[in-house]
Design goal:
The protein has 494 residues and is an alpha+beta fold. The strands form ten sheets. Strands 22-21-20-28-23 form a five-stranded mixed sheet, with helices on one face. Strands 24-25-26-27 form a four-stranded mixed sheet, covered by helices on one side. The chain contains eleven helices and 28 strands. Helix 8 crosses helix 9. The chain starts with a helix and ends with a strand.
C-alpha cells in the first residue's frame, strides 16, 4: 500500500470517530428529556388515579352523577339529603293520574294520611350502585325505581280510588280493536281505539307502586291501567283479515230492470263480508239471500195489489191474478252467489219465474185487454191507445159465477171451439157451447162470442150472466181475435 493511500484511510477513520462522538452526545441529551416527560406523565396519572379513587370513596355514601330516583334528581346527594327532601315533599305530595283522554286527576297524600318513613332502602341503593365505575354515570345516567319509605292509610286510599271520576261506570268506555273497515271500494285497517275502561287490578297495583316510590305522576296508558284492545293496527291477524275480505269485492252485477238498474258492487258486497272476534273473515251467504228477497219485494208485482188507470181515466186498485213480475229467488240466489265468488262483472236480468211487460207504471205495459166488471165494458189498448171497446156480459154473481178480478195473461187463441162444462155420469157434458172465437186467459175463463145473448152491457149480467167468461158480440169478438195474441195481459177490475 502506498503512503498516499494510508494517509487517506487514516483521515476517513478520524472522520467516522468524530461522527460517532456527535451522535453519542445527542442521544445523551434526548434520554434526559424523555425521562423528564415520563416523570411528568406519571405524576399526572397518579393524581388522576387519586382523584378517581377519591370519587370511589365519595360514592360509597353519595349517589352517582345524574342519578334519578323515581323521577327525582339526586345527583351527588347523600342519604340524609335525600331523606330530608322526601320529608319536605310529603306535606304537599299528590300523585297525578294522566288519563287516556288527556284529563288528569289527583290522589293527594293528605287524603290518605301519607307519611315518610326512614328505612334501609336508600342505604341499599347506595351500596348497590356501581361506584367502582362511577365515570360511566357521566354518559349513562342512572334511573332507579324503588320504594323510598312511605306509609299511608290503606282504607282511605281505597275510598279515594272509588271516588275517582275514571272509576265511575258511565265514564268507562271500552277499547275497540283495530279492524278491517270498508272505505270507498276496499277494506283498510281502521286503527284501534284506547278506551277508558280501567283494568282495576293493574291500576290498583300501579297506584300503590307510584305512591311507594313517591312518584309525582302515573301515565295510565304506559302503565297498562286500561283494558287495551286485543288487536292493533299492525297485528298480522287484522292485516290478513282485510286482505281476505278484499278478495270478495271484485264482482259487479248490474241488474237490468229497465228503465232502472240495481247494482251489486263492492259497496254492497262489503256489507256481506264479516270478521269475527278472532279476526277470521267469512262471507255471509244468508245476507245474499236476504238481498235477493229484498229485490223481489221491491220489484215483484205478481199477486200484489196494484193501481191501474182505466180507459175512462179512473184509478182503481186491482187485486189477484196470475200475471206480473216474480223473481225466482232460489235460482237468483245461486246465480248471484256464483257471480260474487267468481268476481264476475256483468249486466243481466234477474232470474224470473214470472214475467210482465214493464217495470214502470202499470206492469201491463202499453198493450192489454181491460174488463170493467162494474160498467160491463171491455177495451183493448194497443201501444197506449184504445183501439177496441165493446159492451160485454160477465159471470152471474147471483149464481156464484162472478168473473174474478185480477191481472192475467192470454194463454192462447183458437177458432171454432166447443166450450164444455163438467162431464156427467152418463158421459154427456153439463153444457156444450160452440163459439167462433175462443181466447182463454184464466183457466176456463176467457173471451168468446155469445150469439145466444140478446143484449150486452148494463145490468143484464146480474140475472143472465155467464159462468165466468166474457161474452161479446160476434163482430167485436172477431176484432179482438185479430188484435190480441198469447202473452197479452188482461186486467179485470171493478
Amino acid at each position: 500500500m502506498t503512503r498516499k493511500r494510508k494517509r487517506r484511510n487514516w483521515r476517513r477513520e478520524k472522520a467516522i470517530e468524530k461522527s460517532v462522538e456527535k451522535v453519542g452526545k445527542k442521544a445523551k441529551g434526548m434520554s434526559k428529556g424523555l425521562k423528564i416527560t415520563l416523570i411528568i406523565l406519571g405524576s399526572l396519572l397518579g393524581i388522576l388515579c387519586l382523584i378517581y379513587a377519591g370519587f370511589i370513596l365519595y360514592f360509597q355514601s353519595h349517589f352517582l352523577f345524574y342519578t334519578k330516583i323515581n323521577g327525582n334528581d339526586f345527583s351527588l346527594k347523600n342519604i340524609k339529603q335525600v331523606e330530608s327532601f322526601m320529608e319536605k315533599q310529603v306535606e304537599g305530595y299528590a300523585l297525578t293520574l294522566e288519563e287516556s283522554d288527556g284529563d288528569t286527576e289527583e290522589i293527594r297524600g293528605a287524603d290518605i294520611s301519607l307519611e315518610y318513613v326512614r328505612g334501609e332502602e336508600l342505604n341499599r341503593l347506595v351500596k348497590e350502585q356501581d361506584s367502582l365505575f362511577w365515570i360511566k354515570s357521566l354518559w349513562k345516567h342512572p334511573k332507579i325505581t324503588a320504594k323510598v319509605g312511605v306509609s299511608y292509610n290503606e282504607s282511605q286510599l281505597e275510598g279515594v280510588i272509588k271516588r275517582l271520576e275514571i272509576m265511575k261506570p258511565e265514564n268507562q268506555k271500552p277499547s275497540a280493536n283495530a279492524h278491517p273497515e270498508f272505505q270507498v271500494d276496499h277494506f283498510v285497517v281502521a286503527p284501534e281505539v284506547i278506551g277508558t275502561e280501567v283494568n282495576t287490578e293493574q291500576f290498583n297495583k300501579e297506584v300503590r307502586e307510584a305512591i311507594d316510590g313517591f312518584r309525582p305522576r302515573l301515565d295510565m296508558v304506559k302503565k297498562g291501567c286500561y283494558i287495551l284492545p286485543k288487536y292493533l293496527s299492525d297485528s298480522k291477524e287484522v292485516i290478513q283479515a282485510a286482505k281476505d275480505m278484499n278478495t270478495y269485492l271484485g264482482a259487479q252485477i248490474t241488474y237490468d230492470l229497465t228503465p232502472v238498474t240495481e247494482v251489486v258492487d263492492s259497496a254492497v258486497i262489503s256489507q256481506w263480508v264479516k270478521v269475527d272476534d278472532n279476526m277470521q273473515a267469512s262471507f255471509d251467504e244468508e245476507a245474499v239471500r236476504g238481498y235477493v228477497q229484498s229485490l223481489a219485494e221491491k220489484y215483484d208485482t205478481k199477486g200484489k195489489p196494484r193501481n191501474f188507470t182505466t180507459a175512462t181515466g179512473e184509478v182503481v186498485t186491482v187485486e189477484g191474478g196470475s200475471y206480473g213480475w216474480r223473481i225466482d229467488q232460489d235460482a237468483e240466489y245461486d246465480a248471484l252467489l256464483a257471480d260474487i265468488k267468481n268476481g264476475t262483472v256483468v249486466t243481466r236480468e234477474p232470474n224470473y219465474s214470472s214475467r210482465a211487460a214493464s217495470h214502470s207504471g202499470n206492469d201491463v205495459g202499453g198493450t192489454y185487454a181491460e174488463v170493467n166488471l162494474t160498467t160491463q165494458m171491455m177495451y183493448y189498448t194497443q201501444n197506449g191507445q184504445v183501439v177496441l171497446e165493446s159492451p160485454i156480459v160477465t159471470g152471474n154473481p147471483n149464481l156464484g159465477r162472478n168473473t174474478p178480478q185480477g191481472v192475467y195473461t192470454v194463454a192462447y187463441k183458437t177458432r171454432n171451439a166447443v166450450l164444455r162444462g163438467r162431464k156427467l155420469e152418463d158421459g154427456k157434458y153439463e153444457y156444450e157451447s160452440p163459439v167462433q172465437y175462443w181466447i182463454p186467459f184464466n183457466g176456463d175463463i176467457g173471451f168468446h162470442d155469445a150469439s145466444w145473448q140478446p143484449t150486452f152491457g148494463g145490468d143484464w149480467y146480474l140475472h143472465n150472466g155467464s159462468r165466468g167468461c166474457i161474452n161479446m158480440p160476434t163482430d167485436k169478438a172477431a176484432q179482438l181475435y185479430d188484435l190480441i195474441s198469447a202473452g197479452i195481459p188482461v186486467v179485470c177490475h171493478f
